[in-house]
Design a protein that fits this description.
The structure holds 2 protein chains of 2 kinds.
Chain A: E1 8-13, H1 19-25, H2 31-37, E2 39-43, E3 55-61, H3 67-78, E4 80-86, H4 88-92, H5 104-111, E5 135-137, H6 144-155, H7 167-173, H8 179-183, H9 199-202, H10 219-228, H11 233-240, H12 248-256
Parallel strand pairs in A: 1-2, 1-3, 3-4, 4-5
Helix pairs in contact in A: 11-12
Chain B: E1 3-8, E2 18-25, E3 28-36, H1 43-47, H2 55-60, H3 67-81, H4 88-119, H5 124-130, H6 132-153, E4 162-163, E5 166-167, H7 173-176, H8 179-198, E6 212-215, E7 226-229, E8 234-235, H9 240-243, E9 244-247, E10 256-259, H10 269-276, H11 282-290, H12 303-324, E11 340-348, E12 351-359, E13 365-371, H13 373-391, H14 397-409, H15 415-420
Antiparallel strand pairs in B: 1-2, 2-3, 4-5, 6-7, 7-8, 9-10, 11-12, 12-13
Helix pairs in contact in B: 3-4, 4-5, 4-6, 4-12, 4-14, 5-6, 6-8, 8-12, 11-12, 13-14
The chains are: A alpha/beta, B alpha+beta.
């Protein structure tokens, strides 16, 4: 049955590496099918053509780091019926949120010769700190199957099936030997949200938390286990301070080990 | 007095946020500005105090399109500083995953970002309506590259399996075997891609560039070599800072890179092709010749053919590596940090990517410097526009604007990369 009109999709970018919007272009088998179902109305990385808003679904990549971003995200919200943030930058502030723990002026003067010209905010913040967000898709980078699920869910007016449980569940489901129990490798899997497919343990490496905190994580307990494995406070600070450093549970745990 | 401005505030089909301004007065170009307005993310600042072993995964986040390039330049820098050599099959596997990155990045650019310019489409999805088989084949070519990345690296964007010293886990020969048939299909498809790109309409435009690329005695350089140019540069990576300078330009968030002695230079596929044509595999050399390219190509619009030649080469090389592969005993060489300065440079899909770190005796990073390909090409992008616009002054304004955009996209600029190592310089009014 032909639809009256195809829903309009927009993709927006703030401070980020472009890797999450790339996930859409990496859907090699599905891209043309998606383009058949939705009108890709605003996606500067992929097209010169711009169709005016309002948009049925906006995907937002990147964190808010400049005064210009603060204004633009309000506009994006106004022209979007549904707004979904994609990736650790948009959902947690990203790696660039490491500035949030320091005096940003000191940070800037380390890097820039003329710091007085640098127009940047003190903090790199998630989109949800600025406007209401309909759904947050986690990951650094996001998983493209999850992205397709989210797009499909919003187009059909249902809730996305994106589980908030830990990497451990995925790891067990894949039948991977626990790297922490069997090899004493520190792993953030118990406190990190699933979605990646437990790839790090599958490659004999501890999870480094790129999907951010799971629902109700017990970070304090995990830190104790890490201490038993010989990790010191500074190691814990570094471990919790990467791509989701500003996500509340990871932030609080890193601060607790800073002194 | 007739004056006009070509203005593109937000360049499409490039990675990141950039703009373009060309001023024309009395049919003469009076100003050209390729602006990068993407906000800086301050990577050098927060790398300070991190452990040397974290540099590959952190710097990967500068760019989602070429994370392997960042991981490899960082890892190689640290290994060099700590006196460790990664060779044999571990080195070969690194080359293999790097081939995967060249393939996915180049195929993305050739088919989804650049080809629509030549045929007059706003994007690849519109192009697919008239040329479905070309776009489908391009997507499949890209997919096989991504599959190599995902298999060896765990996933295609920000792979998790690379570390200083090698890998966390290496595959068995049997696990790699299923790739052979796919890679053979892709090699054939890449050959067709070279032929197809050669049929595109190219403006008659050449410049006398200085091409800078890594060069290696035994192979088409990807992961190591000396920095060599067609105009006499021949230096070790650790001598980089003696020969290259970066200067402030007030209108862009990226520093302009230049050679101290000669100014503008060009990195990327076109540079590699010109510096290392003799190191391409016989299949890739023959395909290039059949496509009408000699060992020297100075037309930046033809970089789309050269990218296709590199896709073909990368598939050919991947098959060679898999054929000769034997699983190494250890996935990584052990590394003992000590105080040192670390220099690394590899050939990212868009050109030479230079890293320099100072680390202390515990392996903690004291400072970092990263020079990405796109910042090195900014001067050449602008110089192309200075030369190109006068030749096309008779085009209608929207066509002239599009031609300028196409000329910028010749470089496959990655603005996400270009901003993050740079000193930001915004003029407040």
């Amino acid at each position: 049955m032909p639809r009256a009109r195809k829903p309009k999709l927009a993709v927006w970018k703030f401070a980020s590496c472009s890797g999450c919007q790339l996930a859409l272009l990496n859907c090699e088998d599905e891209l043309l099918a998606v383009a058949g179902q939705v009108d890709i109305a605003y996606f500067v990385e992929a097209s010169r053509a711009v169709v005016r808003g309002p948009y049925d679904l906006s995907l937002v990549e990147g964190s808010i780091t400049t005064p210009h971003d603060v204004e633009l995200i309000q506009q994006v919200r106004r022209v979007s019926k549904r707004l979904v943030t994609i990736g650790a930058c948009a959902t947690a502030g990203g790696i660039q949120a490491l500035r949030n723990f320091k005096d940003v002026q000191e940070f800037v003067s380390i890097v820039y010769a003329a710091p007085e010209y640098v127009e940047t905010l003190d903090k790199s913040t998630p989109v949800a700190d600025h406007v209401p967000v309909d759904f947050e898709l986690r990951g650094c980078p996001i998983n493209r199957q999850q992205l397709l699920e989210v797009i499909s869910a919003f187009l059909h007016g249902r809730k996305p099936n994106v589980p908030p449980y830990s990497v451990c569940i995925e790891c067990k489901a894949r039948g991977i030997v626990c790297v922490m129990v069997a090899h004493g490798t520190p792993c953030l899997g118990p406190v990190t949200q699933a979605g990646c497919g437990a790839i790090c343990p599958a490659y004999h490496r501890g999870c480094y938390g790129c999907f951010g905190p799971k629902e109700t994580p017990n970070t304090e307990s995990l830190s104790k286990w890490w201490s038993h494995l010989g990790m010191e406070d500074q190691d814990l600070v570094r471990a919790f301070r990467t791509f989701n450093a500003w996500a509340e549970a990871f932030r609080e745990e890193s601060v607790a080990h800073e002194k | 007095m007739k004056s006009r401005t070509i203005k593109v505030d937000y360049l499409a089909r490039v990675e990141g946020e950039g703009a373009l301004y060309v001023k024309i007065k009395n049919n003469r170009v009076t100003d050209v500005r390729f602006k990068i307005w993407e906000p800086p993310r301050l990577f050098e600042a927060f790398l300070r105090g991190r452990n040397y072993s974290e540099a590959p995964d952190i710097t990967a986040r500068i760019c989602g399109i070429c994370p392997i390039a960042y991981q490899m330049s960082a890892a190689q820098a640290m290994e060099g500083a700590f006196g460790v050599t990664v060779d044999g099959q571990v080195r070969a596997l690194r080359r293999l995953i790097y081939c995967g990155e060249w393939i996915e990045s180049h195929a993305l650019h050739v088919f989804l970002l650049h080809a629509p310019d030549f045929l007059g489409y706003e994007d690849a999805i519109q192009m697919a309506k008239d040329h479905p088989e070309v776009v489908q084949q391009g997507l499949q070519l890209k997919k096989v590259g991504n599959e190599l990345m995902a298999f060896l690296g765990g996933r295609e964007v920000h792979p998790i399996n690379l570390c200083v010293g090698g890998f966390y886990k290496v595959p068995t020969k049997r696990e790699l075997a299923p790739f052979i048939e796919k890679l053979k299909w892709a090699r054939d498809a890449a050959l067709e891609a070279v032929r197809w790109t050669a049929t595109l309409p190219f403006p008659d435009f050449e410049q006398d560039y200085e091409f800078v690329a890594l060069r290696h005695p035994d192979e088409y350089a990807i992961t190591e070599g000396r920095l060599v140019s067609n105009k006499g540069l021949d230096i070790a990576v650790r001598e980089y800072d003696d020969h290259f300078v970066e200067e402030h330009v007030p209108y862009t968030n990226a520093l302009h890179s230049g050679l101290k002695e000669r100014g503008a230079y060009l990195v990327g596929p076109l540079a590699r092709y010109n510096v290392n044509f003799d190191k391409l595999s016989p299949l890739a050399q023959q395909a290039a010749r059949d496509a009408g390219l000699g060992p020297v190509c100075r037309n930046p619009f033809k970089s789309i053919i050269v990218r296709s030649v590199e896709i073909l080469y990368a598939y050919d090389e991947a098959l060679r590596i898999i054929d000769e592969y034997e699983m190494p005993e250890k996935p990584a060489v052990e590394v003992q940090p000590h105080a040192a300065t670390a220099y690394g440079c590899t050939e990212a899909p868009r050109g030479t990517l230079y890293h320099r770190y100072r680390v202390d005796d515990q392996g903690v990073i004291l400072d970092a410097r990263i020079v990405a390909p796109t910042s090195q090409n900014q001067k050449s992008v602008e110089s192309d526009l200075w030369q190109l616009v006068p030749k096309h002054m008779d085009l209608p304004p929207d066509q002239l604007t599009w031609r300028c955009e196409q000329a910028v996209r010749n470089y496959d600029p990655c603005i996400s990369c270009a901003t993050h190592f740079l000193r930001l310089h915004i003029e407040r009014e």
